Amino acid sequence: MEPDAIVIGAGAAGMMAAATAAKRGRHVLLLEKMGQPGLKLRITGKGRCNLTNTAPLRDFLTHVGSDSRFLRNSASRFFNRELMDYFESRGVPLTVERGNRVYPTSGKALDIFLALVTELEESPNVEIRKNCGVRALITADEPRRHICGVRLMDGQRVAAQHVLVATGGLSYPTTGSTGAGYTFAADAGHTVVPQVPSLVPLVCVEPIPPEAVGFGLRNVSLSVTDTDGRELCSHFGELTFTPDGLGGPIALSASRHVSRLLNEGHQLKAKLDLKPAVPAGDLDRRLQRDFDQNGTRLFNDALRLWLPAELVPMALKRLHIEYYKRLHQINAAERKRLLAFLKGAEFTLCGTRGYNEAVVTQGGVSLDEVNPKNMESRLVEGLYFAGEVLDLDADTGGYNLQLAFTTGYAAGQNI
Q1: Do 117 and 148 fall within a single domain?
Q2: Main-chain dihedrals φ then ψ at residue 388, nearest 5 degrees
Q3: Which phi-psi region, left, alpha or beta, contains residue 398 (left: φ > 0; alpha: ψ -120 to 50)?
Q4: Minimal CA–CA distance to 57: which of 75, 74, 70?
Q5: Alpha carbon distance, N-terminus to C-terminus of the chain
Q6: For residue 65, what pLDDT band results from cuts at 50, 70 and 90?
Q7: For 13-37, what is each residue's pLDDT tens digit?
């Protein structure tokens, strides 16, 4: 029997769309090219699955890139509260943690996946085909451009009047995210915004001392400026040093604003404020007081007054102050260099890590060509897009999965 709809991709958006459409009585064929559905969903949030954020919609949208207004209509019908009710009503208790981040209480992404896949497998209206890749969309031009079905990798044609592309982006390619949806969209005549890795560690020109690699900082501030000194972004929170640069939540959030520039070959300046709660003047007075009270201590030993041990080698290398100097021998210019390091250690950004480490993909199907009410193409009747394949991405904190579920639900309500 010809399905009412074909959903390409059994990730968060695709499974939500299929479940929603099936509940409306639509017969759905869910195609997944990998051996199992939901591979990326199972590992998201380091296996814990930060599935949404409880921020009000207005605040939530400030964390979304591209045109956040695109989400207003669909989010008014299915947002964080509805998503939480969806999983809790299916036996998955949820917990709200720091930063309004929502996780399954078990701490297992698998529970979110199982709730979705169980509903799909128990529905008489859903057929899941695994190891079933799609080669191309089938369209026709009369009486107007419309979808006719898909052609599978084995050459088989499957007819349907509605097709949803929910193939994800390029991040974590081992889970099946290889960018096929961008090709489908382009072949259908859609504009596809070029892709770059996002929510990804930043690569620095300056070497990171081995002692600092893997070390994490809390309650620090990271800002990035362009070559003209204009601030591109600023984030407060946790940061981790990687072998070739900066990682952790605030570095990943910064990457969303600068990844495209870096991948185009621009070099940017990042400043790390290790003492963001202390104004520079107050910190300078504290340094002078500490110098007076600990005048006989060697400089490299005294650095532990203001820095964790893991960052002392980095400070010594950058400050160009002899480690064996006593504090009472440090002059005003050297003290100012220490102050500048504490309030704005500089790093030259020259790139990002690749899609293997990127949480999401930036870029995708242009939002101008998709109806925000139902995710249907404005160019091809019966063709829909949802999830990461869209030019829609957000900060860390549960925002991106909510985007996938919201757009998947909107498509499922209409296909």
Answers
A1: yes
A2: -70, -15
A3: left
A4: 75
A5: 17
A6: confident
A7: 999 999 999 999 999 999 999 999 9
394 and 342 in a single domain? The answer is no
Co-location of 312 and 229 in the same domain: yes
101-125: pLDDT as tens digits: 999 999 999 999 999 999 999 999 9
DSSP string spanning 307-344? S-GGGHHHHHHHHT--TT-BGGG--HHHHHHHHHHHHH
Q: How far is CA 155 from the centre of its chain?
A: 35
Average pLDDT of 254-262? 97
Distance (Å, whole) CA 347 – CA 97:
31
Whether residues 239 and 310 share a domain: the answer is yes
Tokens of 194: 């070029």
CATH at residue 151: 3.50.50.60
146 and 20 in one domain?
A: yes
Q: Are residues 148 and 294 in the same domain?
A: no
* 173 and 30 within one domain: yes
Angle between helix axes 109-122 and 12-23 (nearest 10 degrees) is: 40
Tokens of 46: 């380091």
Last residue of a domain, one of 353, 372, 397: 353
How many domains is the chain partitioned into structurally?
Answer: 2
Domain finish residue from 353, 371, 402: 353
User: b or e along 200-238 (b: 16 or more beta carbons within 10 Å of the residue's beta carbon)?
Assistant: bbbbbebebbeebeebebeebbbbbbeeeeeeebbbbbb
User: Are 368 and 291 found together in one domain?
Assistant: no
Angle between helices 399-412 and 12-23 (to 10 degrees): 30
Q: Which of 242, 219, 223 is nearest to 232 (CA)?
A: 223
Q: Can you give the pLDDT at residue 239? A: 98
| Distance in angstroms (rounded) separating the CA atoms of residues 156 and 357 | 35
Q: Which residue segment(s) compose the domain that 276 sits in?
A: 201-353
